[in-house]
Amino acid sequence: MQTDPPLDCPLCPRLVGFRAENARLYPEFHNAPVASFGRPDARLLIVGMAPGLKGANRTGRPFTGDYAGDLLYDTLVRFGFARGAYDKRADDGLSLVDCRITNAVRCVPPQNKPVGAEVNACRPFLTETLAEMRRLKVILVLGSLAHGATLSALGLRKSAVKFGHDCAHDLGDGRWLVGSYHCSRYNTNTGRLTEAMFHAVFARARDLVDG
């Protein structure tokens, strides 16, 4: 099993159809599964939900080109998990440092809402991504969907580890699972997530990675 699906992945009919429609509307977009960004020997893995239509689905790099990426990449640079200048392009020269970013669902879903069958179909890719990261110490999940998908990929019951913002769970195998509200425009506009709250999560992740 591969860690990333092929560009013509056929597993989810609804997402295949949506990709085809977007290829017609936006032929210059990536319009394919978005591969993980970063090296497999990283100690921090960030798991998001799915590519944004005009973010990662456009650029081909996770969280690149939409509002969520503005906050995420600025925070990664601040805490030493990235270097360079983020410019909302996959070729902006920004690189990750001891960090990797992926999504629970690798294709853009309609209304930014993947369904359970799509999360399940993409799970093997997340399982393989986790398995190949031999030095992994911290898994930082953005939102409850990413939290549930990650637990399933780890073979853990969702009821065993509750999702909570800035909550860290010792998985008992040398790894930690840390939760954060998703850095979406909706969450920041409504005040559910502030910049300070997001920075606090990454300060915790930094401590756990280095501890």
Explained architecture:
The protein is built from 7 helices and 8 strands, in the order H-E-E-H-H-E-E-E-H-E-H-E-E-H-H. Helix content is 36%, strand content 14%. The protein has 211 residues and is α/β, with parallel strands linked by helices. The chain has one domain: Uracil-DNA Glycosylase, subunit E (3-Layer(aba) Sandwich). Helix 4 packs across helix 5. It has a 6-stranded mixed sheet, sandwiched between helices. A two-stranded antiparallel sheet has the order 3-4.
Overall tally of domains: 1
The coarse overall form would be globular
Sheet-strand content, in percent, reads: 5-15%
- The proportion of residues forming helix, as a percent range, comes to 25-40%
CATH H-level homologous superfamily name: Uracil-DNA glycosylase-like domain
The biggest beta sheet reads: 6 strands, mixed
Number of helices: 7
Specify Rg, calculated over alpha carbons: 16 Å
Structural class by helix and strand composition: alpha/beta
